[in-house]
Amino acid sequence: MSDKTHLEKPYKNILVSETENPIGLKTGLIQINRPEVLNALNNELMQELVNALEAFDRDIETGCMVITGNQKAFAAGADIKEMADAGSIEMLVRDQFARWDRIRKLKKPVIAAVSGFALGGGCELAMSCDMIIAAESAKFGQPEINLGVIPGAGGTQRLTKAIGKAKTMEMILTGRMYTSKEMFDAGLVTKVVDNDVYLEEALELAGEISSKPTIAVQLAKECVLKSFDSTIESGLEFERKNFYLLFSTEDKFEGMKAFVEKRKPEWKGK
Ligand code: DAK
User: Fold this and answer.
1) Mind listing the domains of the chain with CATH numbers?
2) Which residues line ligand 1 (CB under 6 A)?
């Protein structure tokens, strides 16, 4: 279903738009917009972000989503002022992690276009995305230790899987900030680009992915994510089932036929 109401909603903390791509589906763009607090992620913002992402995920005209911030900050973390007075039980009752779980369940690829600070929950949000395009200026870190806590939205787990134990321990136990080049070398970042083109690069990547057969893209994403919590044996089984499943799509027949006939395929997303 193509329902565009999410584009018109009066969001307070994000800007939502969609961009046309040269071929294929559109890209849903969400810009985090609390510049006065370096895009600190408060509850209302997270609610809006997740709602907008899910709306794009449901929209058949959307192929891919991009989340970005501004030059100075992707997001400097969860909003510390919102958590400053909260105790354990209040945090438990708030159950804010449920929103983060919804990001994990999105079917379409999500790209983080990061410039400036990506700290704490901001770094975790970037890691919840499927790829990270980073400006040279970007700074990644998990500084929660300096607040007397630890990462709570996946930092200890996702970082370890992405960059290994040695660097993760250093990052989380010191709370230091790292450059995008360091995080690219460590394997967290897909690509580092000049400061003025990070969003353009992310949108270009999103456009390329949006030109591919939708169901194959979604099942490929699902398989890659599955590898994070499965043995090689069960991961291979899972991949195989999805591989078989794709042989029932019209796009599979079209893709292979087009190759044999030496022409460009015309994808249907079915
Ligand atoms: N929260 C609230 N306000 C923030 C903020 C944050 N995380 N980061 C910056 N700000 C605000 C500052 O308070 C300041 O506001 P005013 O004083 O002007 O009112 C404004 O943004 C500009 O910041 P600075 O003046 O500090 O700017 P600088 O350039 O000097 O420094 C900085 C930039 C990024 C180094 C510094 O602002 C900083 O250290 N910020 C905090 C970084 C941090 O500790 N991040 C981790 C936060 S803990 C959860 C999910 C996730 C999380 C928790 C729970 N659930 C689902 C339950 C994650 C936790 C975190 O992320």
Assistant:
1) 5-210 (3.90.226.10), 214-260 (1.10.12.10)
2) 37-38, 40, 76-81, 91, 96-97, 100, 117, 119-121, 143-144, 147, 152-153
pTM: 0.97
Predicted pLDDT of residue 3: 73
- DSSP per position, the chain: ----HHHHS--SSEEEEEE--SSSSEEEEEEE--GGGTT-B-HHHHHHHHHHHHHHHH-TTEEEEEEE--SSEEE-SB-HHHHTT--HHHHHHHTTHHHHHHHHT--S-EEEEE-SEEETHHHHHHHHSSEEEEETT-EEE-GGGGGT----SSHHHHHHHHH-HHHHHHHHHH--EEEHHHHHHHTS-SEEE-GGGHHHHHHHHHHHHHTS-HHHHHHHHHHHHHGGGS-HHHHHHHHHHHHHHHTTSHHHHHHHHHHHTTS-------
Identify whether 63 is a catalytic site residue: no
- What per-residue confidence (pLDDT) applies to 18? 96
Q: Among 44, 80, 156, 172, name the best residue to mutate to test ligand 1's pocket (greatest count of ligand atoms within 8 A of Cβ).
A: 80
Residue 80 Cα to ligand 1 midpoint, Å, equals 6
* Residue 194 confidence (pLDDT) above 80: yes
How do residues 75-98 score in pLDDT, each as one tens digit?
999 999 999 999 999 999 988 899
Q: Is 144 a catalytic residue?
A: yes
